[in-house]
Amino acid sequence: MSLPNTITVDGPAGSGKTSVSFAVAQRIGYLFVDTGAFYRAMTFLALEKRLNLSDQQQVTALALHTHLDMTPDLADDGRQYTLLADGRDITPHIHTPTVDAHVSTVAAMPGARDALLDVQRSIGKRGQVIMVGRDISTVVMPDADLKIYIDASLNERATRRYHQRLETGDAADLGEIRAGLEQRDTLDSQRKVSPLQQASDAVYLDTSAMTLQQAIDAMHQLILDWTPNG
Ligand code: DC
User: Fold this and answer.
1) Which one of 8, 163, 167, 193 is least enclosed by Cβ atoms within 10 Å?
2) Measured in angstroms, how far is the CA atom of residue 48 from the centroid of ligand 1?
3) Residues 6 or more apart from 162 whose CB is under 8 A from it?
């Protein structure tokens, strides 16, 4: 039985695509690549350098001159990956509320997106990879062997995020989380460059009524059912 060598997963924020894909990658021994981390890394670095985030040229230049890479967990602290920027581990800095608030602006910049294409494609070429994002099936790896679009209703996604926050001991407000997700959905799917959309040849997986374990099993099954000729 052969497995698809390259698997792409797209979907909206909070759909579970990252947790599900990470678990499946571990099951089948594939490299897991969360491309949202690259946009988050650029956002963190731009804020750290106090760049004006509405200045596309500055942010694009930074993206062109920074070498990003993603490796499996180097810190052994249970994280899903380590994100390196010019060799520096910035993983702990890319999921902060400040980065959350600004990342859609950076992700909407054509120059920054272009600068990040090469690194994503070269990692994809390593093969045995599950790459997750918004435009992976449509733009980054349109020739991937298996493309999956993971979705869930807005209410379900907000509820999941709410419980995640409570589990990590952070303050959480369900209404606020829901509004934040809705705003990011709009920004990500209505932007001009590489908007979030389902590729015409992607398999649609709605996890609204599934537990995490059921969603992992469902995605794993799609991989097992895959045949080279479609
Ligand atoms: O998946 P995430 O929440 O970590 O993504 C962070 C941001 O990056 C979000 O605004 C969508 C954007 N993104 C993107 O535009 N293209 C990708 N391939 C991955 C993420």
Assistant:
1) 167
2) 19
3) 172, 174, 177
Quickly list H helices, the chain: 17-28, 36-48, 56-65, 97-107, 110-124, 154-167, 174-190, 212-225
Rounded to whole angstroms, the Cα distance separating 190 from 218 reads 29
- In a domain, residue 229? The reply is no
Minimal-distance CA residue to ligand 1 atom 16: 134
Structural domain boundaries enclosing 202: 1-30+128-224
What's the CATH code of the domain at 65?
3.40.50.300
Say yes or no: 172 and 220 in one domain. Answer: yes
Task: Indicate whether 132 and 107 sit together in one domain.
Answer: no
pTM score over 0.90? yes
Alpha helices by DSSP H, 52-208: 56-65, 97-107, 110-124, 154-167, 174-190
Atom of ligand 1 nearest to the CA of 104: 10
pLDDT by residue, tens only, the chain of 230 residues: 799 999 999 999 889 999 999 999 999 999 999 999 999 999 999 999 999 998 999 999 999 999 999 988 766 777 889 999 999 999 999 988 899 889 989 999 999 999 999 999 999 999 999 999 999 999 999 999 999 999 999 999 999 989 988 888 778 899 999 998 998 888 888 988 888 999 999 999 999 999 999 999 999 999 999 998 76
